[in-house]
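Fold this complex.
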Amino acid sequence: MKKNIKKCFPLFMLPTFAAFCIGFIWPFLQGMYLSFCKFTIPKDAEFIGLDNYAKAIADPGFRYSFLYTAAFAVVSIVFINLFAFAIAYLLTQNIRGANLFRTVFFMPNLIGGIVLGYIWSMIFDGILKKYETFLLAETRYGFWGLVILMCWQQIGYMMIIYIAGLQSIPEDMIEAAKIDGASRWQTLVRITIPNVMSSFTICIFLTLTNSFKLFDQNLALTGGMPVKFTDAGTTVNTTEMLALNIYKTFYASAKTRGLAQAKAVMFFILVAVLALAQLRFTRNKEVQQ
Amino acid sequence: MKKKLVSAFLVSTLAVSMLAGCGGGDAGTSGTGGSDAGAQTGGAATDGAAGGTEAADSGASGGTTAAGGSVYYLNFKPEADQAWQDLAAAYTAQTGVEVKVVTAASGEYESTLTTEMGKSSAPTLFQVGNDQAVETWKNYCLDLSGTELANELTTEEFNLTGDNGETYAIGYCYEAFGIITNKALLKEAGYEVTDITDFESLQAVAEDITARKDELGFSAFTSAGLEGSSSWRFSGHLANMPLFYEFRDDNVTEQPAEVTGAYLDNFKNIWDLYINNATCTPAELATKTGDESEAEFGQGQAVFYQNGSWEYANLVTDESKGFQMNPDDLTMIPIYCGVDGEDKAGLCCGTENCWAVNSQASEEDIQATLDFVKWVVTSDEGTTMMAEQFGPIPFKNAKEPENVFFKAANEYIEAGNYVVTWAFNYTPNVDEWRATLVSAMLQYSSNNGNWDDVKTAFVNGWATQYAAQ
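Structure:
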């Protein structure tokens, strides 16, 4: 009986596999193909070779948004994980109302990115008004604004993962450390942190990919403004991240759709490589329990 | 136990966030209405003959679907969605031809059109707004010259044409923009509309009102907000003034590779006047929205409000807004900016509302679409709806609209004033060009930058976007 069922496994897998092919594999391959084409809609794609890739690499706006995204990712990974871990650590110290705090800190995560972007743009403008300036006046306002927004949204989520990690550390291990005379700091650095490395892996992985794929919040908060001219006479949207740059390129005109597609493929490869490298790097540090 | 709870919580939030993600994805296409039957026949019809019989079957009650085609209209104006749905239903009831109307969400027309065109049941009737859109979609635009629809036109001025005289799209309505004026408030300040005939007189009136602002209780201009919902009034419409005069001098008839910005000083004149005589300080412009500006005018806080004929409904008839201004108090005056001979200027008239028929649809569908649009511009129901929703339409059977702004536009034309055409329809990569200009205007207005930034954005930005498009 069991053997018969085992034989049938392709049959049971078929619906999911078909959905995966239709919803993921096929669009992905088509997207790859389109990056070598000139097209208005996918149906009338015309193969033109590597032109789009050459243009994408030469595009100063794209290169700028790559650096901007990388800078944003570094800053936000540090801030989000630092605060998330600190809060998670505090909330596992048996303080009163811990559950309430957890819920409250988690809640921003339930609000959609576009809404958050607009709400925060009003908050920032309200504050900056006091100094007779505004969010879109300078690139750095937009940058730090987005960092604050993302911290506010993501810290709660990462906190939950850290809490789960902290609670899974065996009590006796901590007790043993205490008996051996370890200070609080030593316990934290030598026992707690190595034991929640798997949580760090997940959280850093999530914040890294989230930062690189960030779109809604970027669109709603600054939309890429302010715009600056480069020495070569081209324009650069100074708070535009990669995903927004790709989106804007796609809809700029019919001639730039292939270019946007090429950028998107490069973007995919970049995110995939980064994520895999990061995964491998932190895996090495995990403690096997 | 606790761990289990946490994981259950995590799983449920994951599910919630995924659902939220799906919801967000749907928002883009916001298909409103569109009967199922319409969708079915639309899909089948592209299969040619087989589809034809199916459509005829489903439309048998009407009895006149000899050709068996159906219509799929991708509508551009969300505010006119209901009117189109009703009109489509009326047409189907009369003729049995299925008409599916889908409206793209505001600001999402291009992306919705791109998606829909890729489907097997693509729109048969859609909108191309300017030369750049024609450039994008011309392989899909049927040459409409000589069709019955084209023969109904009273003017071809609003059509979009190709290099060899093809009519790619037919302008089905036109709009006018200028400075909307509250005559009652102007009178309170001691002036008449006829006192304003050029930039000097406009400036004199505005500055006098600003000087007596506290005593009068209102300002000259509404806030010239540069927030996204308002900035197009300036980066698009106001910037039309320097573009128009420059193109008029240079006899420009197609998209130029570069502009000189010869009239940018005039642009500065009027912009300075707007921001220094407004309800708010220039530093506040970054956050002022279009709704705020409209409300300031609707509530009588300012005399002048730069916007277009489409505002009539919002200011006068729309009960939910609560302004319900007296139409007799309203008029529209030209945007004066200090150009020689501008006392003979009229309002800025043009359109971005042009119909194109999908040349790659099946023959039956093309015929059904042409029949439908002809009916829209000739039948009683159609012309009534068009007059209500779109104002005057350039067709022989058009009905007279109530909109006072169009009356003003016509009065200027009848008085022999020149029409300021929509020169901005030539803008390359229009969204990018405007964003650059807004960014520079923001810097200038908040004293973080100077006028040279605006010049750079205007002139160099044009060349950049022309090269990039």
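Residues 13-66 of chain B have pLDDT under 50 and may be disordered.
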